[in-house]
Amino acid sequence: MTMPRTDRRDDDPAALLRGAVPFRPASVAEILDNAIAVLRTAPRLTLGFAVPAAAAVQLAAAVATALLLRDDGEAATAVLESAGAQLVLSTLTVVLSALAVLILAGLLAPVLGGAMTGRPRPAWSATVRRTPALLAVASVVVLAALAGLLVPAAPFVAALVAESEPPLIVACGILGVPLGLAAMTWLYVLLVQAVPALVLERRGFGAALARARTLTRRGWWRTFGALLLASLLTLFVAVFLPFLISQVAGAAADPQDGATRIGLVVAALVRIVGWSVALPFDAAVVVLLYLDRRMRREGFDLDLRTRPDADDVGFFRLWRFGIPGRAP
Questions:
Q1: 241-300, pLDDT tens digit by residue?
Q2: Which residue has the higher pLDDT, 242 or 18?
Q3: Rounded to 5 degrees, what are φ and ψ at 217?
Q4: Nearest to residue 261, comparing CAs of 109, 139, 80, 104?
Q5: What region does 163 belong to: left with phi over 0, alpha with psi -120 to 50, or beta?
Q6: How crowded is residue 123: how many other Cβ atoms within 10 Å of its Cβ?
Q7: What pLDDT, in 10s, does the model give residues 118-140?
Q8: How far apart are CA 288 and CA 32, in angstroms?
Q9: Is the separation of the CB atoms in 194 and 216 below 8 Å?
Q10: Domain assignments of the chain as residue spans, ordered by start
């Protein structure tokens, strides 16, 4: 049976609305590829959001690092190489980066929705009005994931602070840290789609979080796989490459001129460039996963194939209220 389509449709039934991204469910590899393709369509807007966010994250990390440094170069190096200092700095960077990704996902969600439907970008007034709710939802998602990590790992941290016997520290670490990482991952993947739901469906605070849990149901592992692959790419671009460059810069500097501090400055600048690319990419993956889950659960692409007047349906109205007769 041939599905009716409008004259404006592409011959490929997958490219329903002539957007930069085909309006249909996508594989994990396609989601990652589409994230890059969408960001290339609006580089100025993307960088306009991403550069300040990346700079803020790196500035906060640099300030935290400076507080751990001493005047003496060798002492500063020892502090930075200590396990406790690295744990604090790494946790702070991860938390701030995750928060920046979610905020960018909310800000870029209208752009990504427009790229998928081929429609003009919506007015920003509605998105700006929801900024407080966006900040609240993003913070709750990050704090919930952080709590999932810290609660099981609390005995391990307490043993470290109390300088307990090594066997006790090791036992607490073996039991608590893996459990904390698992809980953190589960909670983040479960709630991450609340941000695009808040913006694109105009839902309230609690409704957006509930919506994320509904969308993730029977799709947790797929969502986890896409986010894991995106994170690995992010680690390479925003962490591994800046680390190599900072090590080269620190080795080339004269130790008497403060090689440690020079390396930190160079690393911060390079990380800002790397995170300016990585943060919007991760944000785009979050939004595209949300769009994909809605199509898989509610069949929006099938609706567009079977309704000749689908091109006349407002995108945000359709995504906010859903397709009549289909449970969200």
A1: 766 666 665 555 555 555 556 666 676 777 788 888 888 999 999 999 998 888 888 776
A2: 242
A3: -60, 130
A4: 80
A5: left
A6: 9
A7: 555 555 556 777 889 999 999 99
A8: 9
A9: no
A10: 28-300+310-321
